[in-house]
Amino acid sequence: MSAFAECPSVLLDVTFVLQLQPSMRLEHISDSVIDFTGYSAAEYAAKPRLWLGAVDPRDRQLMLSAFNAAQTELTTMNLRFRTRDGESIWAHQISRTVRTPDGMVLLYGSLTRIPAPTTLANVDGRYQMLAEDADDVVLQTDLAGRVVWVSDSITSVGWTPAELLGTQVSRMVWPDDRRVVHDIHRRVVQGQTVSGVIVRIRTADSAVRFISTTARPARNAQDAIVGSIVGWHDVDEVAQAHSAAEAERQLLRATLDAQLDPQVLVEIIRDSAGAMMDCRFIEANPAACDFIGVPRDELVGQTLQSVRPGLLGEIDYERLAARIASRRPLVFNDYLLDSLAGVRGRFDLRAVPVGDRLAVTWRDVTDRYEVARALAQSEARHRVLLEEGSDIVTFHDLDGGLRWISPAIQRLLGWQANDSALGQIMHPDDVEVMKTAREELEAGAESVSRRLRLRHRDGHYRWMQATARAVRDERGNVLSFVVVTRDIEDQVTAEQALETSESRYRLLAEHATDVVYQVSAEGITEWISDGVTAILGFTPDDLVGRSGLEMVVPEDRDYVDAVAREAWGGRRSNARFRLLTKDGGSRWVEATMHVVRGDAQEPLGFVGGWRDVQAEVEAQEALDLRARTDDLTGLLNRREALAQLVHSLAMGNGHRDQLAVAFCDVDAFKSINDSLGHSVGDRLLRTVADRIRGCVRSADTVARVGGDEILLILRGVRTLDDAMAIAEKVRLAVRAPIEMEGQLVPTSVSVGVTMATEDDDVDALVARADRAMYLAKAAGRDQVVRVL
C-alpha cells in the first residue's frame, strides 16, 4: 500500500489490492476509481464482484493471466473497462502477486488510463522501478542527461523534485564517480539496460551515500530513445560494511603475514562416526610455512598426516574434541613436539575453535622452559612499574626535560599535569642525586633507583622513590628516559622512627641489660633483677623458684626449649620470644644465654639477660604490613593479591577448581572525583572498601588493584553460581548512597565474575574477570556479569 502512496498522480489513476486466496475479494481500491469507472470505492467494497465485472468480457481471460502469474513476477497489460454509463475505456495495468507469511495470496495492481493501445514504455519503466522497491528513487533524463522527471522519494536525500528538474543528473553524483555515470548514460541512450552499478551520490547537505543504480532507455510513442529512466536503491550501509569488512580482511591478512610466530587455520576432518581423524590446512602464514618446511601453495589443501605422518598420534584427541565442542580456546603450554619439521623442543600452542575449524599458533619456548624460574624472577622485577598504577610516571628527553607526566601527580603532590612549575619541584639538595642517576643510565645501567624529595603544591617536601630506565634504540643509544616515582613519605618516617628506636635500643644494649637472670640446670629461676617489674609487672619474688619456661607464652615454649638445648651444647646464645606479663598480655624480648660451669667444667645452669624489643617488633610488623596493603583503603595491594593468586593457581594446588575471581569497578567514580574533589573520592573508596570487606567470607581476599578497581579472590566456591551469589551480595552492600559533603552520593559497582580453569594463569584469569566487568558496565552498570 505504501508503494502506491509515493506514485505521482500523473502516472497512476487507480491502485488496488485484490485477495486471490483463500477467497476472492477486493482488499483495497483508491478513491480515484470514481473518476475512472464512475463507481465509488465504497461501492466496490460493498460488492467485491463489481470490480471483476467491470473488465470488458473480451479482456477477462487476459486479466486471469495476471491472477495466475508467478509470485513476485511483474505483469503488464492493456485492458478495456466498462464505466457506469456503459462507455468502454482503455487502461494500462501493472500488477504483481505476493504471498504473505500467513498464506494469503494478494494481487497488487495499478491502472493508468490511456487514450488507446500505445507504447507506454516510459510510464511502464518509471512505475516498474517504483513497484520493485517503494523506497527507491526514480528519475527520467533527456538525451543530454538533464532531469525531466523525478519521484517524490528524492526527498529522502534532502533534494526536492523542483530543485533538480532541468539540471544535469551529474549534479547529484560524487565527482569521483561522474565518469561512471556518464558511461552508464552513454550505454543507455545506445539502447542498453544497465543494472547493479554502485556509485556515490551527494545529498543536499553534501553528505555522501552509496546507491545501486538501474538504468534503461526512455522511448517516445514512436519507440525512439529520448533519454533514460534511472532508479536507485540506497545501499550505503551495505557498501560501508563491505568496505570495512574488506579493509579488515586485508588488515587481518597483513597482520597474519607479519606475525613472527607460525599461525595456521586448519579444518577438522572427521570419520563416519564423527570422530576426529585428521586436519586439512586452509591457511598458513610465512612463519608457519618456514617452520613446517612446505611452501604455502603446496601446504594449503593438504592434510596434516600427509605433511607430517604420525604427528596427530601425539595429540590428546578426547581433550581436543571436548574443547572444540565447548568453543573454548585450547591451550597447551610447554608442549613437547619432536616430529614437526624435524624440530624437538617445548612449544606453547594455542588453538581457537572457529566453527569446525581451528586457528592454531605456536611458539618455541624451549629456552623459557629451561630457565623458567630465573625468567619468572626477572619478569617479576620488570613488572613492578606496571603493577603500581597509582605511581607517578614521567617521560623525559635526553637532556632530562619533562615531556609527559601522569595524572597521579595531582593526587600525590597537588600539581596539575600541565603546571609550569613542575620543572622546579625537586629539592635543591637532590638535583645532583638525579644527575648522577642519569649518568649511570647513559653509561649502560639498566635501571637506577634513587630517593629524593619533591615539593607539594602547599610547599612542604615529601620523600619519593624514583626508578628510572633508559629507552634505547637498536644500537643501545639512549633516546629518552622513563621514571616511575612512588610516595614513600610514610615509609621514610617509619624508617627514621625505627632507626631512632634501634639506635636507642642499641645504646641501651651496649651499656646495660634491661633484665639479668640466673636459672639452674633444671630451668628454675634462681635470681632475676628488679628491672623485670617495669617490663612484665612481676616482682623478682613472684618469679624466683618458678620454672623459667612458665614465663614464656605457650606458643614459644618449644622454640625456647630448643634454643636452651643449643646453648647448653654451645651452639647458640641468643633468641627472640614472647614473655607473659602480669596483666595477661605478652611482650617480645631478646635474650642471651650463657652456660655457667663448675670447676670441672660441668654445666651448672644459665646466666644471661634479656631486653624489651616490643617496639622494634611492632615497627617491623608495621613495615611488613605496609608493604602488603593499600595506604588509602587498608585493603591488600595489587602485588599481594597477585602473589596470592599465583600461589592459588600453582601446580599441585588441589583447590584451584574451587577458586573464583570477582573484578569490581566503582561506577561513575571519575565524575565524582571531578565534581566533588579527590578528598571526597578517597573517602568514597574507603567506604566502598569497608562495605565489601564487611560482606565477604573470612577465607576470601579483598584487594585494591587500581584507582577504583577492587579484586576479590573467592576460595572454596564449588560453582560459578556460588561466586555470583557472593558478588551479588557485594553489589547490594555497596549500592546504598553515601553521605559526602552534606549530600547523598549514589554509589554502585559493576562486577565481573569468573571461575579458574585448569589452563588459567594469573593474567588470563584476571583479564577474563576484567572483561566480564566491562560487560557489566555496558549492560547499564550496577550489574554482576559472569564469563566462563
CATH class of the largest domain: Alpha Beta
CATH topology annotation of the largest domain:
Alpha-Beta Plaits
- Structural class by secondary-structure content: alpha+beta
- SS elements, strand count: 32
Question: Could you describe the largest sheet, including whether it forms a barrel?
Answer: 5 strands, antiparallel
**CATH architecture type of the largest domain:** 2-Layer Sandwich
Enumerate the spans where pLDDT stays under 50 for 5 or more consecutive residues: 1-12, 118-135, 382-387, 503-512
Strand content: 25-35%
The strand order across the widest sheet is: 2-1-5-4-3
**How many separate domains make up the residues?**
6
Overall pLDDT score: 82
Q: What do we call the CATH homologous superfamily of the largest domain?
A: Reverse transcriptase/Diguanylate cyclase domain
Helix content: 25-40%
Number of helical segments with 4 or more residues: 28
- Assembly state: single chain
Radius of gyration: 44 Å
The best one-word shape is: elongated
Beginning-to-end CA distance, first to last residue: 49 Å
Description:
Helices cover 34% and strands 31% of the residues. The two termini are 49 Å apart. With 788 residues, it is an alpha+beta fold. Helix 25 runs antiparallel to helix 26 and helix 26 (678-695) crosses helix 27.
Produce a short descriptive summary:
This protein is of the alpha+beta class and 788 residues long.
